[in-house]
Amino acid sequence: MPRRVQIAVFAVLLVVLGYMVYSRTRPPAAASADDALLGFQPLSVENPTLRLDLLDRMKQFEYQGSHRNIFVATPPPPPTPSPSASRSAVPAAPPPPPPLVVPATFFGYVTDARTGDRRAFFSEGDDVYVLAVGETLLGRFRLLQIGNNTAEMEEVASGRRTTLTLEEPGPS
């Protein structure tokens, strides 16, 4: 490409670049007021008089709320109890918790002849668990004590205790 053609192409590109910069940086042309009024549609109101009865009713309105300052972060004072409610409402004691139910049966134990430690046998369905004192059954119940006919269990989460009695296996 000859040198003259390159200079001509470069000059045309500079003119296009200058126009683009000018068009991007100049402020937009303001719309005239006539253009804004062309799309105006007035509202259709049958009777444009003021409703004075509604204004009077709003003037007579009184706030019946707690009169709490909404700009203060402290909680509002507790409501004062009415005399009739304090006489009739006696706080009832909460009901006792339901009895603790262990979903396994205690069906036996064994004593180690050398150490004297006992291990208890529990069954849940087809599963059999062998536990020493302090171990947990089903991840919820801790074995506290093994007696001759009983096993004392404690629910780990709540600390409630129950005693399971030895159940003899039925005929197979």
Question: Summed up, what is this model?
Answer:
With 172 residues, the chain is of the alpha+beta class.
Written description of the protein model:
By secondary structure, the protein is an alpha+beta fold. The protein has a domain at 105-165: SH3 type barrels (Roll), CATH 2.30.30. It has four helices and seven strands. A four-stranded antiparallel β-sheet has the order 4-5-6-7, with no helix packed on it. β2 and β3 form a beta hairpin. The chain starts with a helix and ends in a 7-residue tail after the last strand. The model has no long low-confidence stretch (mean pLDDT 85).
Could you list some keywords that capture this structure?
elongated; SH3 type barrels; 7 strands; 4-stranded antiparallel sheet; 172 residues; alpha+beta; 3-stranded antiparallel sheet
What is the overall silhouette? elongated
The span between the termini is 106 Å
Q: Give the number of DSSP strands.
A: 7
Q: What percentage of amino acids are in beta strands? A: 15-25%
Would you identify the CATH architecture of the domain at 105-165?
Roll
Question: Which structural class do the helices and strands define?
Answer: alpha+beta
Low-confidence stretches: none
Helical percent range? 10-25%
How confident overall, as mean pLDDT? 85
Supply the CATH class of the domain at 105-165. Mainly Beta
Radius of gyration: 45 Å
CATH topology of the domain at 105-165: SH3 type barrels
Q: What is the N-to-C order of secondary-structure elements (H for helix, E for strand)?
A: HHHHEEEEEEE
Strand arrangement within the widest β-sheet reads 4-5-6-7
Question: How many strands, which pairing sense, and closed or not: the largest β-sheet?
Answer: 4 strands, antiparallel
